[in-house]
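Feature request disguised as a bug report, sorry. It would help if multi-protein outputs had a clear separator. Right now it looks like this:
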Amino acid sequence: MDFATPLDDKVSVAPQLPLAAIDALPADGFSTLILNRPDYESPDQPLTSEVAARAEAAGLRFVQIPIVGGQFSADAIDAFRVELAAADGRVLAYCLSGTRSACLWALSEAPRVGTDEVLEATARAGYNIEALRPLIDAQSA
């Protein structure tokens, strides 16, 4: 997928997906699709119910963990971590630009691999989330 940017061997992030792009995800090795946008964030985005139906028709496990206003709650971080652990293949997480998904990945993976490693991985992927270092450090502790 040209629009999916890998963060590690298992997780990639992407900006808003067209519904038709979901059909090709299994052929690219993805088994789980995580949506990090709430419904009605913008008028041009598909509703969660539409995304879920398309993902399920493609044979993907679908999860929504909406992040609003850059607020990364402990529940959202834990839910993302649980979903990554439960995935039996590659995971694609997406939001409007991919940034929230990259941040959520960094916050959920920091306890396992450390702050510097997740910040390096997100930077390689084109996401500068250095401003979240204190929050990522807190997750690593």
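(second protein starts here, but nothing in the output says so)
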Amino acid sequence: MYKQPLHILSRHGMGKNKVSFIICNKWLIIFLVTLVSTNTLNAQPAPCNPISYRIFNPFVFNPAIAGSKDFSTAGLIISNYGKSNAQLATINTRLSKTRNEYFTSPSNPEFTNIGLGGYFFNELDDPTHNIGIGATGSYHLQLTKDALSYFSVGITAKYILNMYAGNTELENPSINTYINNFDAGMYYYNPSFYAGISATNILDRLENPDSLGIYNIPITRRYFFYGGAKIILSRYHNILLEPSLIITSGDSIPDKIIEIFKPGLKLYAGDFCIGTYLNDFNKISFFGQYKYPRTYLGAYFELAYKEPYYKQPLLVEFALGINISAVKYGTSRSYHW
């Protein structure tokens, strides 16, 4: 059986394509201007955890990414860090066109311009507890005739329940806050390059119902730049290197500018992927991922190296995913990342 190599490079297969640097530079300028335009401190995304969703499910922070693959994917990430834990369940797909199928029909599917996604998250970080749900829609515009270069826009509407447990010693009451919010993003991608910008929790935290100032809702506006490249090291052995960078900040840049940069690196080798994502420069982080036909398993670890291991708990996150190909006949395209 013929195995198509390096499906991770393209929606419909291999091919060379020129990157539109003008579009990417415009995005970067818009992002940098927006980044310094206002002045709220201590912003957090929602969800904040699990951390590894930025690796396994980036459409959660940029809705324009939903549907950018030629297969559907559903995943679950479970995180544990000391007394804090979180769970995130996701699904996203690109709607395919309906057509008459015959046994002699080619197996390549045809897609519409619409991508869909959704997720549910549960975060517990004493004394706060966030439960949220999001629904995502995206539109993908084909830029070249070979269907390898796309520009997409997306939006996510979400509903969050924030619960504050209170403090009996200080006689602070418990507080439940219901929050409607939305995210928006843009994304450019081709077989060898991708870049996008997005904003999450655009409505900010709205009005804080706690008039006494006891508790600030930890859900505020945040901005993301996400870009990377895919470099083929060996086409025959399916070996590929993918460096990437996430730049993220709230409505003001932190004192330590390095904190806004989150570099990552993936090395694909056949069915296995290893890499690192530096969410915190004071910690060592690494992850691994292995894919079976239509499923994958992943794990992410983060450990502080400037303090003894017994003073800082080990962050552990596990990911389980299912990839569903749009191909129904002929050669099954089960070699998806």
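Even a blank line would do. Unrelated, but nice: The first helix runs from residue 21 to 35.
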